[in-house]
Amino acid sequence: IMLLCLPSPASCTTCPQKCRCEDQQFYCDTQGLEAPPDGVDRGALGLSLRHNSITELSPDQFYGFSQLTWLHLDHNQITTVQEDAFQGLYKLKDLNLSSNRITKLPNTTFIHLINLQILDLSFNLMTALEPELFHGLRKLQILHLRSNSLRTTPVRAFWDCRSLEYLGLSNNRLRSLARNGFAGLVKLRELHLEHNQLTKINLAHFPRLVALQFLYLQWNKISNLTCGMEWTWTTLEKMDLTGNEIRVLTPDVFETLPNLKILLLDNNKLGSLDPLVMDMWRSLGTVGLSSNLWECTKRICSLKCHHITISHYVPQHREDEIFSYRYMVVYIISKGNQCGTFDYDDRSFF
């Protein structure tokens, strides 16, 4: 154990031999540790135990570390987290448990962490969440749950997370969304549901997300996009549906989204667009429609009448430069859609 003396105030604290210590923050990474090392000051403000060999967090594992504001336990081999493992960590704001082997967490795991703002549980092996796992986390702002094996989320699972702004549920096995699954998330701005197994999306499941701006649904198996109730989602600005199986779009969906600015529908199975749908796209500034199954008939003529800018679009082929970028149909034709024969020189199309 080394003795670390701080110039101001005049005090000394011990630093375990395998750790790096700085301003009451202890970095004990990549040392093959199976538990927190002896000698870490109980007044520590931060503790990093990343890339070690910890397999279990026992009750009162961090007893006495009442001043901790951040704790990083990612990239270990943790399979079990006992109840009360984090008891006494009332000042903790940032907890990282990602990249472990956690399959289940008790309901009361985080009940003492009343000031927690960031929680990372990504890259674990969880198949389900206990109904009250996040109960009491009223200051939580960022929650990472991506890359687990979650098949569903409990009704009202996030009810107490009234300050949550970011929720990451990507790369799981979600097949459906509960109607009240996102109840309580009144400040949520960004929701990630990409790379799951969702087959249908009903916007009627989202009316409680009154602050949401960004919704990511790409690379699911969505074939049905509907809105089962009349309401107006004024806050949503971006919706990414890339890589799904959507064949038809209906006007009622976009009537619900009057302020949508970015809509990405690349790599779906669209063959044509209803002119009534296009009429609902007047707020859009960016639309992605590449790699669909477009019919090269007059059924897509309605596209020529809608002057929507394709932002940040870089031409990939010479023919991309033939037409004005003001026309969304340029994006459709020149980005590898499965279209029949089309005469690029037939400018009368426009």
From TrEMBL:
Coiled coil location: none
Annotated GO CC locations: extracellular matrix; extracellular space
InterPro entries according to UniProt: Dev_Immune_Receptor, Leu-rich_rpt, Leu-rich_rpt_typical-subtyp, LRR_dom_sf
Origin superkingdom: Eukaryota
UniProt keyword annotations, A-Z: Glycoprotein, Leucine-rich repeat, Repeat, Signal
Signal sequence region: none
UniProt-listed Pfam families: LRR_8 (PF13855)
Descriptive protein name: Leucine rich repeat transmembrane neuronal 2
Organism expressing this protein natively: Hucho hucho
